[in-house]
Amino acid sequence: MSPGTFRKVLVANRGEIAVRVIRACREMGIRAVAVFSEADRAALHVRLADEALPIGPPPARESYLRIDRVLDAARASGAEAIHPGYGFLSENAAFARACEEAGIAFIGPRSETIALMGEKTSARREAVAAGVPVVPGTLEPIADEGTLAREADRIGYPVMLKAAAGGGGKGLRLVAAPRDLLPALARARSEAKGAFGDDSVYLEKAVLRPRHVEIQVLADRYGSAVHLFERECSIQRRHQKVIEESPSPFLTPELREQMGTLAVALVRRVGYENAGTLEFLVDAERKPYFLEMNTRLQVEHPVTEMVTGVDLVKTQIQIAQGEPLALRQETLAQRGHAIECRVYAEDPEAGFLPSPGRILALRSPGGPGVRDDSGVDEGTEVGVHYDPLVSKLIAWAGTREEAIRRMRRAVAEYRVVGVRTTLPFFARALTHPDFVAGDVDTGFVERMLATGNGRPAVEVAVVAAAIHAFEARRAAHAQPDAARLPAWRAAGLREAHLDRAGGPA
Amino acid sequence: MTFDAVVDGRPFRVEVRGRDGRYTVRLDEAPLDVDVAVTGPHVASVLLRGESHEVGLERRADGYAVSLRGGAVTVDLVEASHGPSPQARRPHGPERLTAPMPGRVVRVLEAPGAEVKAGQALVVIEAMKMENEIRAPRGGRLQAVAVQEGQAVEAGALLAVVG
Questions:
Q1: pLDDT at position B104, please?
Q2: Phi and psi at residue A84, in whole multiples of 5°?
Q3: Which residue in A462, A492, A455 sits closest to B48, CA to CA?
Q4: Alpha-carbon distance A240 to A391, whole Å?
Q5: If you average pLDDT over residues A288-293, what whole number do you get?
């Protein structure tokens, strides 16, 4: 082992991404240390880790966002490095700096790079300086309403209001006309304040019917940088991605090459280290505009892993260990096609409202070309404190058409009882002619939902419910004081088994 | 045994006979042979007209939440001899709008007295870091708003009444 090799890594996250990082550590022979809030004592990431330490009460700001507690846990466990996952502290320059000062490797870029590229307006300035095209807009956050209105007039409506510290679609508002500007501003500021503790916003021209395409990059500390092609992330609702794929059906080879070259130029200019993603909008004329850089691992990183064969998390750890990048641009290629569906505990029939609850039954799909990056299992309580992402389902196949068919098959196999999920939404989206044709922009979900929904087999539901009620009545009549006995006593299962399993009370 | 069921306002009369996993079900008079195999405390395999369905069942106060391959269905269910059908139980008067999850009220979009349309957003609740628009269950006059901006609410808390 080289002197820089980590023996123990702390994973400063929860859910599926903590599980993903723990898996990478395990495969590298590194001990994985989990941290957990009181709500996550029994969570999957705790059970899969080698060591686990509590870091506070359920609210994230009292646990997963507490720099001091995460660092205390790292010191207590003797971890040499911290992987922040995505979200939480992953793009927090103060956290990265605190790690640097504590002599613990932060698996990500240096703190000054996070500060530079994480703040959207300075990232845009760097992009312009590197020759990367950006969407017309204000380069600075705007506090004054009068200035904001004048700038919006100058750029031309429709405009987008964006949180300067933002990400994940929070604090983002489309403004179609001048009279909508101030109400939208109030809402954007309120969301930005709530999500990031910083209510400053800036303004951008809205690109109509845009594609959202991003470029994955990897760079080491010796100046070597490569891109790992694009991810198509146009299928969004409320500005959050729900389906991603690679390659993008919309990019030409020339545009792919151009965007990759631009991304590497920007990465080199800022001396970027580790994994990062440059987000672009691509307009109907296939002109790319740089939007922002995510200085961390992305939720949707698996589609890139599936088509390039590169394990991004392991490579992140190797880079943080000080290893030179072993990848060369000319040997990287996209092979086949990968699609990811984000399975959220949300009710697609009720406007995607969160659907917290206990997962009573769960079966993940398997078979050829299917990967399920899940953070839950049967019995997991999907709480209200964190993002309701329960799993990422990824399908790979030789062509896009085969990958779509495989994903439809995998979605149909996925069984979740106890919480509503976005799976029925995917079943519809994956058969939609526009999706199948690759003709998707960021308005796809709204247009698809507006066309009415495909109803599940209501008749089957009624029959199953009635039979269950029938058996429950019969059980109650046979044993009047045991009305709460499990009702599925017919159909060959012994009651002892049902009792032990708890029954559908 | 006969049940009255309602799904999305659509009534069904269901008669069930049989045992040990094999049933004859009359659904609005059409007799169906149904084969049920229990595969877990909340999951059953249902064979109906040769089609294989995997069904998830959760008991609810008024019936069941049933999950199927194509999505989830809420089935209100009551034994036919036991009081009025779920259809009749459904209130025709003012409808209460409740919080579907715990969170914080960040915006109240309409004032009492406003005429609202079905599906119109009335209250915005922030939960799990997302703003969620809570919409009118049906059209009518907004009779009352029970929450204020900034207020924390539990799941099931009354938000508003639409009459």
A1: 87
A2: -90, -5
A3: A462
A4: 15
A5: 94
- A63 vs A457: CA distance, rounded Å: 43
**pLDDT tens per residue, range A405-442:** 999 999 999 999 999 999 999 999 999 999 999 988 88
Which one of A353, A457, A505 has the shortest CB-CB distance to B53?
A457
Least confidently predicted of A190-194, A330-334, A467-471, A488-492: A488-492
Collect all residues with Cβ–Cβ distance below 8 Å to B121 and sequence separation of at least 6.
B109, B133, B134, B135, B136
- Residue A481's pLDDT band (boundaries 50, 70, 90)? low
Of A161, A165, A135, A108, give the one whose Cα is nearest residue A298.
A108
* Contact with chain A for residue B64, Cβ under 8 A: yes
Q: Are strands B115-116 and A240-246 parallel, antiparallel or unpaired?
A: unpaired
CB contact under 8 A, A464 and B66: yes
pLDDT, one tens digit per residue, over A365-396 is: 999 999 999 999 999 999 889 999 999 999 99
Chain A contact set for B36 (CB, 8 A): 464, 467, 490-491
Whole-structure pTM value: 0.81
Q: How far apart are CA B35 and CA B51, in angstroms?
A: 10
> For residues A22 and A83, what is the distance between their CA atoms, to the nearest angstrom?
10
3-state secondary structure of A327: coil
Give B25-36 pLDDT, tens digit per residue: 998 878 999 999
Q: Which of A72, A11, A75 is nearest to A43 (CA)?
A: A11
CB contact under 8 A, A457 and B68: yes
Instruction: Check residue A1 and give its pLDDT.
Output: 38
Mean of the pLDDT values across residues A461-477? 91
**B67/A417 CB distance under 8 A:** yes
DSSP string, B14-44: EEEEEETTEEEEEETTEEEEEEEEEEETTEE
Q: And the tokens for A371?
A: 């990967």
Establish if B114 touches chain A: CB-CB under 8 angstroms.
Answer: no
Residue A503 has a pLDDT of 38
pLDDT value at A486 more than 80: no
Instruction: Say whether A470 sits in a helix, a strand or coil.
Output: helix
Is the CB of B30 inside 8 Å of chain A's CB atoms? no
pLDDT at B8: 84
Q: Are A454 and B70 in contact (CB under 8 A)?
A: yes
Catalytic, out of A296, A371, A400, A420: A296
The position carrying tokens 């990465």 is: A267
Q: Which amino acid is at A27?
A: E
Nearest residue to A102 (alpha-carbon basis) of A78, A63, A75, A84: A75
